[in-house]
Amino acid sequence: MTGQAIASGNSAVRVLAASLIGTAVEFYDFYIYATAASLVFGPLFFPSDSPSAQLLAAFASLAIAFVARPVGALAFGHYGDRIGRKSTLVISLLTMGGSTLAIAFLPTYADAGALAPLLLCILRFGQGFGLGGEWGGAALLAVENAPPGWRGRYGMFPQLGAPVGFIAANGLFLILGLSLDHDQFLAWGWRLPFLASILLVGVGLWVRLRLTETPAFAAMIAREPPPQVPIAELFRSHWRETLGGTFGAVACFAVFYVATAFALGYGTTRLGYGRENFLTAQLAAIIFLALGIGLAGWFSDLFDPRRILMAGCIGSIGLGFLLAPLLGSGSLFDVWIFLSLALFLMGFAYGPLGAWLPSLFPARVRYTGASMTFNLGGILGGGLTPILAQALAERGGLAWVGLYLTVASIVSAIAIYLLIRERLAD
């Protein structure tokens, strides 16, 4: 690997801040939608006599972004591998930020009829499209600037954007829930987190516009012309890494969306917990996600990212058997125990991805490869998870949701075990 931050004119603080802040902004945007889908989008945009049907429709709109993410990964990966990481990351941030801001001004079904959910779904696609190019670029920004022996710790910073964005999103919803009554929150309060995204996008842009190109990309351009069609070269020469990386990322998404979107929706409807109480439990648990990511990044440099990912997936296999007794116990403390354990283990199945997925591909197709594997894994592990988990819980109980987690974790563990090659040498 060629890159040290000093070699490219990017200080370590600037690189890590850009990786963290950018993904924090993106994940904040993503999570406020997931939270709103769990709490208010059902009755506002998908009216129905059945609360469960409303929730399923809202979760279906949530899944649209996961369909958009590989499209965004393809588009942004193409330009990220041809013109550079920096410019592509700026555009991805603007795409998702603009889509999120526009949601704040949407009419509801009562105001515009069927046009309202259609516009919501279009903007949700825009969010996913932007995020599709975000994570891969942020991960490359970190690891392609990492000094020798620090790839795991640098690579964990984009992942730390997840708990930061989650805390900001759910914390703001919690404050609004405590400050506003139900009618105020339903009428206009839910729009405020979407409006606030413009401030966070401004911070992210300020940091990223001050960066220079990564040394790995600069060295590749100096050595050879970029690929004409990166996705074609990726599938032609690196299809095994693409397939293995995709399935290796499934577990972390499945665990996360069960512990956040599904748990919040199910807990505040079927289990009868108050919205503010459940959001508080999730906020307290998300600290363990940050802890897990930090430890996983550190251990990735002591051992290697693949081993740490395997450990996280194996731990998540057992997590599935704890879901029903803890989440369905009737005790909010037991729920918090489950959420904390789930998110801690998710940190080990998620934190090393920033170092591991880019290591599977050479620099000339690394943006496309890392973005496609991460986002295709997001579709398989996260896009349909809230819908499937809700349907499984309605028909077979929480034990079936736990089984779903176990199967997803086994799939990822097998994929990571079989895919042993690392290529981050250029």
The CATH architecture term is Up-down Bundle
What's the CATH C level? Answer: Mainly Alpha
How many domains? 1
Total count of helical runs of at least 4 residues: 21
Distance between the termini: 5 Å
| Strand content range | under 5%
- Total number of β-strand segments? 0
Structural class: mainly alpha
Radius of gyration from the alpha-carbon trace, in angstroms: 20 Å
The percent range for helix content is over 70%
The main β sheet shows up as: none
Keywords for this structure?
426 residues, mainly alpha, Growth Hormone, Chain: A
What layout of secondary structure does this protein have?
Elements: H1 12-39, H2 41-45, H3 51-82, H4 85-103, H5 109-112, H6 115-143, H7 151-155, H8 157-179, H9 182-187, H10 192-208, H11 215-223, H12 230-237, H13 239-248, H14 250-269, H15 275-302, H16 305-327, H17 332-350, H18 353-359, H19 366-383, H20 385-396, H21 398-418
Helix pairs in contact: 1-3, 1-4, 1-6, 1-8, 1-10, 1-14, 3-4, 3-6, 3-19, 3-20, 4-6, 4-10, 6-19, 8-15, 13-19, 13-21, 14-15, 14-17, 14-19, 14-20, 14-21, 15-16, 15-17, 16-17, 16-21, 18-19, 20-21
